[in-house]
């Protein structure tokens, strides 16, 4: 995971040159966990919560499997300002890889005080559940 830590935040980014929270999930899922996830390129700016929140809600309800026991490769979704607008990739519970606007990619615990009360849920891409 060291090669992914410190990658800068770039809204809409999908590679190690810079990415947003979904970009790191998308890239690392493919290159580390061999899982092809949707790119969700149908929104313009990851910082626009009014756009990102409905995408998470729609996709989590339709395409993703909610899981009660997270495992490496699962996605953890967080509520920020009441909307599910941030995510991270579970690397080794309780560690996740994620990035935020104004902050480079970090490996951090989702059980830390900053995150634990914001967890919307843990989700697994259906193709990974087989």
Summarize the structure.
The protein is an alpha+beta fold and 130 residues long.
Give a verbal description of the structure.
The strands form 2 sheets. A 6-stranded antiparallel β-sheet has the order 3-8-4-5-6-7. The chain has helices at residues 21-31, 49-62, 113-116, and strands at residues 14-15, 18-19, 65-67, 75-80, 83-92, 95-100, 103-109, 119-124. It has a single domain (2-129), classed as endopeptidase domain like (from Nostoc punctiforme) (endopeptidase fold (from Nostoc punctiforme)), CATH 3.90.1720.10. The protein is an alpha+beta fold and 130 residues long. The chain is built from 3 helices and 8 strands. The mean pLDDT is 86.
Keywords:
single chain, 130 residues, alpha+beta, endopeptidase fold (from Nostoc punctiforme), 6-stranded antiparallel β-sheet, two-stranded antiparallel sheet, globular
What is the C-level CATH assignment?
Alpha Beta
Q: Averaging pLDDT over every residue, what do you get?
A: 86
Share of helix, binned: 10-25%
Helix count, per DSSP? 3
Gross geometry: globular
- CATH fold field value: endopeptidase fold (from Nostoc punctiforme)
Distance between the termini: 25 Å
Could you give the topology of this structure?
Elements: E1 14-15, E2 18-19, H1 21-31, H2 49-62, E3 65-67, E4 75-80, E5 83-92, E6 95-100, E7 103-109, H3 113-116, E8 119-124
Antiparallel strand pairs: 1-2, 3-8, 4-5, 4-8, 5-6, 6-7
